[in-house]
Amino acid sequence: MKKMAIDPSRTNPANITVREVMNSPVITGRPEETARQIAKKMTENDVGSIVIVENNTPIGMVTDGDIIDRIVTAGLDPDKTKAIEIMTKPIYTVESEAQLVDAVRYMRKKKVKRVGVTYKGKIEGILSIWDIISITPELVEIFSERLNIETPLAESRRNPVLMAGYCDLCNRWSDSLIEVDGKYICEECRTDQ
Q1: What is the Cα–Cα distance from 191 to 132, expressed in whole angstroms?
Q2: 115-171 pLDDT, tens per residue?
Q3: In sequence order, what are the residues at sequence separation of 6 or more whose Cβ sits closer than 8 angstroms to the Cβ of residue 55?
Q4: Rg of the Cα trace of the chain?
Q5: Alpha-carbon distance 191 to 185, whole Å?
Q6: Cα–Cα distance for residue pair 12/99, rounded to 1 Å
Q7: CA-CA distance, 141 to 9, in Å (whole number)?
Q8: Tens of pLDDT along 167-190?
Q9: CA separation for the pair 48, 43 (Å, rounded)
């Protein structure tokens, strides 16, 4: 599976597109394939879903959850149950150039863990909740960097540098002077202000 990397120098992480996070190519199966054949394809391709295609048209999706819920839990024979009998339909899709945040909202609204990703009306990839989770560390890094760039003064106020010396207001020695408006002020004088 091919996945693109998120550029940590990006200035607005809210503009990450689905294309940057999706997995491709899409692994497909036929409606008449058995659940065991579909499960084997998932294992061989290290994916959690197979798009079921008939006459080059996607008609549904079999997920690892479908196999557990509709085969294992139901006690069905995976060698006799066909993909068309257990697939989820319809396939919910999002456009490849859609914002990731919008795709996540759509997935939450539809209560699905995977969506097909389309480009010019054709499914080109799959976006799963795991794809989104996998980029979380990069997103945290991007947001942290952006925060540091936009708010260096606020950051310095949250984590002030303590110095030792004479207070510019009371002229007493202090081990906890903090610079405030160009003056080094002790804790007691800061409290009085």
Answers
A1: 46
A2: 999 999 899 999 999 888 887 776 667 666 666 665 555 545 566 778 888 889 999
A3: none
A4: 27
A5: 10
A6: 11
A7: 10
A8: 899 999 988 888 888 888 988 888
A9: 8
